[in-house]
DNA sequence: GTCTATAGAGAGATAGAC
DNA sequence: GTCTATCTCTCTATAGAC
């Protein structure tokens, strides 16, 4: 469900753009109304409160992330799956930098009205990574210093965060501070850091 | 310089704790005063404004990070340097989770009064990683699909973000959502993801 | 150097006309 | 379904006593 009259969409878009730079708490309903080109009353006609507006925004944005990741992985396994997930996530960050910034700043907040919603969505997205990692980790050879397959000993959610964090931070570093780089260059750098380019050959 | 009378310290500590969960904009000067056990007037006696208070806080916290990282690296090179940096950063995140949360949520904001200060400090910390990476990357064998040493082709700041992001996100995932795990387990999972545990043996 | 009290601006939310 | 006008509360910051 997208729109009643386009107004809802305009409000969500305006709210996202503003919150990406000022943060949610720093974005006022007056700002959103002005940017969306509607009156403040219309905000409250479409959303019951500021909290509810941003919950809807995060639900829409982060909610589709897990689907996109699952689709990107498809039937791939092992390192190919990791590669696909990393580049898909990077592309999504590039296509929606505002949402990525918002995610980065909200994901570890524990006092929000929408905390449960966001937590569930975050968990779902991480799970796609964790599944691919469990499978790839089991298949890969022993890694340096740690005993064989399953190197992380069941800590696949931590490894998933690790990969997710690597992509999110690099992606935003690129978009916010080094926009002159190409997408492929950034993707290659991330994949290099994850493929052991920094490690010696003991694996 | 730490204190005039302990009041400054108490204010900074209170501000950090509150901002870690509510965010800076969501933290009021009244909250800070109450938690610090002083009157609001004392906040403005010690800091000229709310912005200045939080700038001082970030400067103190993030500013010491680069020093700590440099010290952790010491004279190590190659993968040993990366390992030392990763574990040092993880330990610092664990020791100061509040600051880590704050960093995660402020690092990509571009509208803050203290933006220039924070950018410079962030850059300094990333540089320590970038230097170690340039050296390790040049020394390591060819990585999968990409031509030999210097795999990232000068994108060492992106690789640095990648490693930094991996540690920051995993560290917070651990502290916020999976505190029952041990530090060593988390460190091992992060290092595994960076040492190529997920990649095939083509390197 | 720390307090209380308050000024003044800005925030979320609602009422009611059109 | 959208607007304008306004209510009420909260926030930053300051003034002035102690």
Describe the structure concisely:
Chain A folds into 2 domains: 1-47, Arc Repressor Mutant, subunit A, CATH 1.10.10.60; 62-194, Orthogonal Bundle (Tetracycline Repressor, domain 2), CATH 1.10.357. Helix content of chain A is 70%, strand content 0%. Chain A has helices spanning 7-22, 29-36, 40-46, 50-73, 78-95, 97-106, 115-139, 156-177, 183-194.
How does this model look, in words?
Two copies of one chain form a homodimer. The first copy, chain A, is mainly α and 203 residues long. The first copy, chain A, folds into two domains: 1-47, Homeodomain-like (Arc Repressor Mutant, subunit A, Orthogonal Bundle), CATH 1.10.10.60; 62-194, Tetracycline Repressor, domain 2 (Orthogonal Bundle), CATH 1.10.357. The first copy, chain A, has nine helices and no strands. Chain A binds a DNA duplex (18 and 18 nucleotides) through residues 4-5, 7, 28-30, 38-42, 44-46, 49-50.
At the first level of CATH, the class of the largest domain in chain A is Mainly Alpha
Query: What profile does the largest beta sheet of chain A have?
Result: none
Total number of domains of chain A:
2
The gross shape of chain A turns out to be elongated
Estimated structural class of chain A: mainly alpha
Known CATH architecture of the largest domain in chain A: Orthogonal Bundle
